[in-house]
Amino acid sequence: MRLSAVFVVLLPTAAAFAPAASSIRDGASSLLLRASPPAEAATPAKEGEATPSGRNDEFVVGVLGDLHIDPRKMEDYAVGRAHFEAIFAQAKSDGKGVAIVSLGDLGESKNCGHNPESDSELFAGTTKCHEMAADFLGSFGVPYEVIGGNHDLEGLDEFETDTENLEVMLRLHKKETPQFCREVADKTLLVGLGSTVFREAVFTSHEVTIDQKQIDWFENLVITHPASEGWKIFVFTHAPPNGSGLRVLQENHVVNGCCWLNHSNEKQCKKFIELVREHRCIKAWFSGHFHLGQDYQDSITFPTIDPKDGPYPNRGSCVFAQTSVMRAGTSRDGRQQSRLIRGNKDGFEICTVDHQKDGKVRLDATITFKGDTNEVGVYAHEDESYDHDKYFKVYQPNAGDKLHPPDDGFRRYNTDGIIEPFDIEVDTVAWWYMSCGRALGMLNGNLIEYDSSTLAPLGLVVGADELVGKKIGVINSGLDADTCSIMFDEEGMEGADCASLAGDLREQAVVLLDKKTNVVTVVQPNEDGSYWRKIVRNKMVRMKEVRRVKAAKLWAAEVRGLEDESEVKVVSSWGPYTTTSGTAKKTSVPGLTAPSAL
């Protein structure tokens, strides 16, 4: 059992079985109809076959979180499948549409003894991994769909490129594209978007990246299947979109820039919630990625709340739901659970299939449609937590609205246009907007940037290792004419427009003051204006860096005649980077920045 620190982000609370399923692939406006295979051959169905008539509005869908199949540890998968077989048998007997959706991350990201020729090859993303996953998903007796997660193209030793890896994944799962669309009931679509980047990631390889072609396809689909015509769309992605409001997160996903879909691409990251807000045909969105349980109300968010409970969430007509895992060894909080959706023309239920309780089905939330463009959700139970759960109660800003003021952590500027310096401790609660519109705030002693629209955490700006025990403030940095002219006498500053800079009264600086040494640190924004530090590069880059370090040790040991290479100390030199680490929890630079009080 793997237990690790978890963020619970406290947000402003905002009839006849259809034997066929339609598939919408390359164009949202054209339907490629496909008949579902018989139960005993439950593989993704072939394209281009006629769709029998008679579909009704009732459906049952199983949703599987991160499988991370390990061929040495298949017991939990067999047990989990048995739990669903009984559910699907009853649904088919009742004449309901059925399907199962896997949210990706199909294989374990470690060597599983699967390749006798290599004791280091990772199982995830390999041909053998996708063959096993296809066999497993095809054994449930119902049609299945699958999308790519952040580990599904990790077959680094077998494939040179993401394109090659993706082609094999699609072929083995009998998919034509990374995305899918299946009509499981009358005007009810199951839609999936898959990650297509690993080796070519600009930053961390574990960011879930939906390529622009899929985004365009998805936008066209929701435009051409409007709520006004009765369409209902259930979306499935590996990671949730920014703005989902899900409040059970993990620290490593937040600080490393892989929490939300397309996390490091500001425009694309916002696009998904913008589509949700605009197109009320999107009724629900299911995701995995965090390996955390479903026993908390925080794992489901509703599109509307009672005004007395807080500001309007602005999440269209969409419910967002997090999905846990099936195998014990992949759980980060000890839970083994999957999702179950039961729906009809009036609404749907979100349930948990608990694999630790003999497949017990528990109702978690009931969502009732109010016309075509609205829905109301009700939780079915309070949080069910275990004694061993260890959570950080993570502060997330609440900007308020016309009926509600901002929360108590909101820092206002004084009459001089500055935020007075204040002490930072691990439990400090504070946030503010910069004049440029960026939102910054404190989270467990870290300075974090938040999305200016959704106020979802984006990433680490200054780590607690550098910040705790210091003062932080925001000051004006606009220059008067005299200071400007003196400054621009410096070499390399010739020709700058002093007049325009001197008049920019809202130019600002975030400053940290070390009370012991009086050293002041200016937190400079990135070139694109953002503040959160994109510290972790993709895995291929870091693997090469580690190999260079290893080679340097061996070389130095040989040159110096040392018997033990551990006697050699290697120091790496980067551009903006400071470490080969795949985790960005610290921002301090030894010998450069002053340490915190931690």
Automatic annotation (TrEMBL):
Transmembrane segments: none annotated. Residues 1-16 form the signal peptide. Keywords: Signal. Pfam families: Metallophos (PF00149). Residues 61-291 form the Calcineurin-like phosphoesterase domain. Residues 579-598 are annotated as: Disordered. Gene3D superfamilies: 3.60.21.10. Coiled coil: none annotated. This is Calcineurin-like phosphoesterase domain-containing protein. It comes from Stephanodiscus triporus.
